[in-house]
Specification:
single chain, 596 residues, Rossmann fold, Ribosomal Protein L25, Chain P, 3 domains, seven-stranded mixed beta sheet, 12 helices, RNA-binding
Amino acid sequence: MSVDPSSPAPAPSDFIRDIVAADVAAGKYAKIVTRFPPEPNGYLHIGHAKSICLNFGIAREQNGQCNLRFDDTNPVKEDVEYVDSIVRDVRWLIAGWADSCLGFKPRGGKPIPVTSNGQPDSYLGPVSPDSPDAEPFFASDYFEALYAYALTLIRNGDAYVCDLSAKETDEYRGAPDQPGRDSPWRGRSVAENLALFEGMRRGDFPDGARSLRAKIDMASPNVWLRDPLLYRIRHVPHHHAGNAWCIYPLYDYAHCLSDYLEGITHSICTLEFVDHRPLYDWILEKLRLPRALPHQYEFAKLVPGYTLVSKRKLLHLVTQGIVSGWDDPRMPTLSGLRRRGVPASALRRFVTGVGVTKYDSVTDIALFEHAVRDELNGSSERRLAVLRPIKLVLTNLAPGEIVSCEATNNPQSDTPTTRPVDLTREVYIESDDFAEVPPPKYFRLKPGGEVRLKYACIIKLDEIVKDASGAITELRCTADLTTRSGQPNADRKVKGTIHWVSATTCIDAEVRLYDRLFSVAEPAREEDFLRVINPKSLETVTAKLERSLAGLAGGVCHQFERLGYFTTDPVASRPDRLVFNRTITLKDAWTAPGGK
RNA sequence: UGCCCGAUGGUGUAAUGGUAGCACAAGCGACUCUGACUCGCUUUGUCUAGGUUCGAGUCCUAGUCGGGCAGCCA
């Protein structure tokens, strides 16, 4: 059954949603605002889908908003190619589900001066993502505001310009079990710090010559509180901010303030940022900001089995040409999954189904596969296709004779429709569906055995024809036309039913059979993940399809009966030259004794 | 050997001091013109040791195991 949108699954519950609900009950915020803050340095993957669904899901359940914001504070690693792909992927994932919660801002918009609780303040409000002048939020649009906040920290004696080199800074930081030492520049006067920081902005100093640091505690057991860097000098242009800056803020400084400027209430990130939370809070508190402060909460990221969720490693697969690109259908990227034919709804169902906890785990890929199959089972029309054909001759049919049979388009539908399929003297069946020496409990075609051709009739194998080398060239069978639907023996039972296509009216198509990219459950644990790549992750065959598929425009998923779900490849397929991607196989409970 | 986070069947999770439940996976069976779907049944679990309590998966203490943190990355 297809999913009824009027009766959605019950809203999920988890420790973060509990916190949000408590804050709502306490009237802490006027409106719940979350954010999804990717850095545009790679494509979004299945792990990000969890974060997107969590953040947008909460916004959706609370009648709130979720801002798409680029955390673009490191121009050397970022690119507009990534911002474009990320916008596309996010919109695809939430389409028809949380579009109305998506927070964008006016094009070119930057934080504006406002008065909050009688105090001067800065704020950047949202605009409908569908308005013509809307664009996502960018941390780089806050550089001016961030600079002003930095000046305040300096004036208050909470930040200083440090002249230590990167290497020296490391040495002064100490070790986790060893306290750090104060920088010799820690005691500079406010006036000197101000002058130097202004010089940094002006471009007076080369990369790495100085940095702005928070003045916290070099002996803190939390290394992130040992006078962390706030700004570094980088004389490079920025993909969004242009050439306006040669100093760039670091994540910890930019993130909390970006959240504040946008009025974020719940800043949800992954576990590796737990140690940063005191710094997040420290910066906001030191600035004595007039509005309610955002708070950070952390959850365990999603790591599905047999895949990699590391932008760095994924980038490596792309640049080494191990896959065809970020959108290769074997990639765990959202664009790869989309191209493969995975519906956004299945992805959403999977990532919300795994829940939200603080426990690091590897999620069984079967959970994902189940969600995909379940979603596609209800929505996909059935078609007949033979991937690895073997010719079968129905000796009692005349050459040129076509027996039209009625095939059901979708048995899961409440009102199933049908289409005609052609039964002819020569047909193709799957080579897997014939065994000259069948294993025990083999239901398919075997010497002297009977099987039903789905939607057609029962056939009996009479003769196996081989060539001089002993290879099978054709199977000669007798068709019992009285077992066709509507005929007197239609109800006759045989154990096996197989799929087939007419050899005379079928069409050819390229079909790409994808399998998992890695051969081990946790490729991330390997010393060299390239050594555990599944050599059979892609096999391409020329398949025989029933003629009703001819001219298929694309974008639609079909179930090829008994095989799996297949979607035309959006890049390679044309109506006159079809190319299919196998999205996923059908579940297969049959295993020949001894494996198969 | 500093700080932080965590631990419930094979996997992911629920139980908010009161009957350890759900989904997936696995196994068996029913149904079947898809060895799919659907349906029924079954196997498997609270890291350890103490403590608090009438009662602990839940609270406390200690331990064990796993993960994270020493980028001018995010």
